[in-house]
Design a protein that fits this description.
The structure holds two protein chains of two kinds. Chain A contains no helices and eleven strands. Chain A is mainly beta. In chain A, strands 2, 4, 5, 6, 9, 10 and 11 form a seven-stranded mixed sheet that branches. A four-stranded antiparallel sheet of chain A has the order 1-3-8-7, with no helix packed on it. In chain A, strand 7 and strand 8 form a beta hairpin. Chain A is globular and about 35 Å long. The termini of chain A are far apart. Chain B is mainly β. Chain B is 0% helix and 51% strand. In chain B, a hairpin with a 6-residue loop joins strand 10 and strand 11. Classes of the chains: A mainly beta, B mainly beta. The interface between A and B is medium-sized, with 27 and 25 residues.
Chain lengths: 115, 112
């Protein structure tokens, strides 16, 4: 059973460009979470999605950031008009269902560098 | 809101030394508690978890006990190895679904 897949692993964008980060959850998992890790910091929750639904986006910046998890295909985190402060590692996690006792399985992350 | 506080690093230990990384939390209700480990350049891996008071999570020689009275979940290992060098994150989830709140991480370096 393959783990959580993220691509690309490394992404370099110039200021003002768009960044698209992809996450394929583990087989059978219908819940996806995105986190951001700034250098030397812990992970910060961004958004929680189920298929075709955003459940909680309280950690998402109000502008330039969006996320989706379509019926078919991977979850996408999209950052428009990137700025240097967006440089970070973005981690996706998945779980088979909600509920506090189910641990999340993390992908290897996408390291975004904005030049 | 929920929060996790863990001891600042880096922590440097000699091989076979005893490890304690302190973690305390603030949460509404009865959270589940986790320790995750992150090796350089990799994502997070679940190390252990506890879902109710007095539960002890254990894995690979690491242990942590869910202490509701002190709101703590300290990580311990009796004899660390060089391969344990990593960043350790204490975390919790609560509120009916699994939005996880992480501490800032503690970097552990074990020297031979």
């Amino acid at each position: 059973n393959a783990g959580v897949m993220q691509n690309p692993r490394h992404l370099v964008r110039r200021r003002g460009q768009e960044a698209r980060l992809r996450c394929s959850p583990m087989k059978g998992h219908s819940h996806v979470y995105w986190y951001r890790q700034l250098p030397e910091e812990g992970l910060k929750f961004m958004v929680y999605l189920q298929k075709e639904n955003i459940i909680d986006e309280s950690g998402m910046p109000k502008e330039r950031f969006s996320a989706e998890f379509p019926k078919e295909g991977p979850s996408i985190l999209r950052i428009q008009q990137v700025v240097r402060g967006d440089s970070a590692a973005y981690f996706c996690a998945s779980s088979p269902t909600g509920g506090t006792s189910y641990e999340q399985y993390f992908g290897p992350g996408t390291r975004l560098t904005v030049t | 809101g929920d929060s996790v506080t863990q001891m600042e690093g880096p922590v440097t230990l000699s091989e076979e030394a005893f490890l304690t990384i302190n973690c305390t939390y603030t949460a509404t209700g009865y959270p589940s508690l986790f320790w995750y480990v992150q090796y350089p350049g990799e994502g997070l891996q679940l190390l252990l978890k506890a879902t109710k008071a007095d539960d002890k999570g254990s894995n690979k020689g690491f242990e942590a006990t869910y202490r509701k009275e002190t709101t703590s979940f300290h990580l311990e290992k009796g004899s660390v190895q060089v391969s344990d060098s990593a960043v350790y994150f204490c975390a919790l989830s609560s509120g009916g679904y699994q939005k996880v709140t992480f501490g800032t991480g503690t970097k552990l370096q074990v020297i031979p």
